[in-house]
Target: Hydroxyisourate hydrolase
Amino acid sequence: MDQSGTTGTTLSTHVLDVSRGEGAANVEIELRAGGSSLGRARTDAGGRIAQLSEQPMSPGRYTVIVRLDGYFGSLPHLLTEVTLELDLSESRHYHVPLLIGPYLLSTYRGT
Model:
């Protein structure tokens, strides 16, 4: 257990649809490392996934794939799939929110 009280490295996300002013429900997100899938989940009604990995993680490089095509459906949109390459350098909890809209994407390291 590290100083924050977290065991190992963990990763969560929150997808917020800024065009609607609410969490983006049912967005499919996959976590990969070294070409292998570590977990796949869909955001809850509030746009959250509390833990992306289905197995223990350690510091390292990870790929997060956010599939937006199904979320936007027939609504005109630019982004269908977004890939984030992350370097999780410490054994701690990481929270990586995404702000999305039909024609925008922004992300940052949250708390």
The domain at 10-107 is CATH 2.60.40.180 (Immunoglobulin-like). Residues 69-72 form the longest helix (4 residues). The mean pLDDT is 93.
